[in-house]
Amino acid sequence: MSEPRGILDSPEEKSRGRGASVSLSDLEKSYAGVAAVAGVSLDIRSGEFLTLLGPSGSGKTTTLMMIAGFQAPTSGDITIDGASVVATPPYRRNIGMVFQNYALFPHLTVAENIGFPLKQRGVSKQERTRLVGEALELVHLPGYGGRYPDQLSGGQQQRVALARAIVFKPRLLLMDEPLGALDKQLRENLQLEMRRLHAELSITFILVTHDQDEALTMSDRIAVMNDGSVAQVGRPEDLYDRPCNRFVAGFIGESNFLPAAVRGVESDVVVAECDGVLMRAVSSVRPASGTKVTLATRPERLRFADRPVESGLGVNRMSVTVSEAVFAGERCRYLLKTEGGTSMVLKEASSAAVRRRAVGERVEIAWSVADTIVV
């Protein structure tokens, strides 16, 4: 009989990849004729960390529950490693699951909680002890096996929930707002811990969250959901720098939206007029002259142009008035008004060497054309 394997794979096993691939095909879920999920198609790669991100009611949790098997789709298909699981009950899908409320058994010790899925699978007591110890090491809680859940902090309880979800070596781990109940600093620490855990385990993680910073920090790719559909899928930096529409630009990070009218296209760059000023923007399409469009740019990409800055086709410039100035520690946040009354936000790194702007001050701002997109 071969030696039982541990939770972590050997380098050779990691190189082959032990995460499950997941495919959603035209997935729909309706309640009383109202679509909560409306035709979602999405391929999740083996070993990937994918986040379903969206506001409340966007369909992200319903999608996750259908992957887990806790809800049945109205139509469409779900495959795991190429095999349909729509008719497979949850306990046979061999999926790890982590919830926001931890879902620990209060009458069981930490070790008993973590070992519960192993006991359900008929794993021997000796083997359970070994695997539970490995899981506690992985989540940085060695020596905590004899404690009870009410003797742990919220962050420690969530680590136990994670250990319980991975101890039986699933190929897929689903997480529904797992850090939502934690305070900001602890949540940020655990985000990095979960990234580390994903790298060590080499399994597929699917996370549901409405927290954009959490999604940007943790994910290989993000699927932004809205009204039951996937609005855009991509790497965090791609979604942040090149959102496909106004919803994505506004939901991931903060954006300035400038109404404009197209005046032409030059070398694949759209030339548009906003409040009497000609601007240039990147666009995936070539809108016709006269078309009304919205230009988007991030507040941290704007800068005050006290001195002459590089000019030419690579920079947009505009005169504005400071209408509000807020010191926020590491950053200063300015609300600006254009001559036409359009509001803009500029975020500037705070420093004793940087002059702060006064309300009512007339200033000129500049930013790169590459940071201006048509949405």
UniProtKB/TrEMBL annotation:
<keyword id="KW-0547">Nucleotide-binding</keyword>
<protein>
    <recommendedName>
        <fullName>Spermidine/putrescine import ATP-binding protein PotA</fullName>
        <ecNumber>7.6.2.11</ecNumber>
    </recommendedName>
</protein>
<dbReference type="GO" id="GO:0043190">
    <property type="term" value="C:ATP-binding cassette (ABC) transporter complex"/>
</dbReference>
<dbReference type="GO" id="GO:0005524">
    <property type="term" value="F:ATP binding"/>
</dbReference>
<comment type="subunit">
    <text>The complex is composed of two ATP-binding proteins (PotA), two transmembrane proteins (PotB and PotC) and a solute-binding protein (PotD).</text>
</comment>
<keyword id="KW-1003">Cell membrane</keyword>
<dbReference type="InterPro" id="IPR003593">
    <property type="entry name" value="AAA+_ATPase"/>
</dbReference>
<dbReference type="GO" id="GO:0016887">
    <property type="term" value="F:ATP hydrolysis activity"/>
</dbReference>
<keyword id="KW-0813">Transport</keyword>
<dbReference type="InterPro" id="IPR008995">
    <property type="entry name" value="Mo/tungstate-bd_C_term_dom"/>
</dbReference>
<dbReference type="Pfam" id="PF00005">
    <property type="entry name" value="ABC_tran"/>
</dbReference>
<keyword id="KW-0067">ATP-binding</keyword>
<dbReference type="InterPro" id="IPR003439">
    <property type="entry name" value="ABC_transporter-like_ATP-bd"/>
</dbReference>
<dbReference type="Pfam" id="PF08402">
    <property type="entry name" value="TOBE_2"/>
</dbReference>
<keyword id="KW-0472">Membrane</keyword>
<feature type="domain" description="ABC transporter">
    <location>
        <begin position="22"/>
        <end position="252"/>
    </location>
</feature>
<dbReference type="InterPro" id="IPR013611">
    <property type="entry name" value="Transp-assoc_OB_typ2"/>
</dbReference>
<comment type="function">
    <text>Involved in beta-(1--&gt;2)glucan export. Transmembrane domains (TMD) form a pore in the inner membrane and the ATP-binding domain (NBD) is responsible for energy generation.</text>
</comment>
<feature type="region of interest" description="Disordered">
    <location>
        <begin position="1"/>
        <end position="22"/>
    </location>
</feature>
<comment type="function">
    <text>Part of the ABC transporter complex PotABCD involved in spermidine/putrescine import. Responsible for energy coupling to the transport system.</text>
</comment>
<dbReference type="GO" id="GO:0015697">
    <property type="term" value="P:quaternary ammonium group transport"/>
</dbReference>
<dbReference type="InterPro" id="IPR005893">
    <property type="entry name" value="PotA-like"/>
</dbReference>
<comment type="similarity">
    <text>Belongs to the ABC transporter superfamily. Spermidine/putrescine importer (TC 3.A.1.11.1) family.</text>
</comment>
<dbReference type="InterPro" id="IPR017871">
    <property type="entry name" value="ABC_transporter-like_CS"/>
</dbReference>
<dbReference type="InterPro" id="IPR050093">
    <property type="entry name" value="ABC_SmlMolc_Importer"/>
</dbReference>
<dbReference type="InterPro" id="IPR027417">
    <property type="entry name" value="P-loop_NTPase"/>
</dbReference>
<keyword id="KW-1278">Translocase</keyword>
<dbReference type="GO" id="GO:0015417">
    <property type="term" value="F:ABC-type polyamine transporter activity"/>
</dbReference>
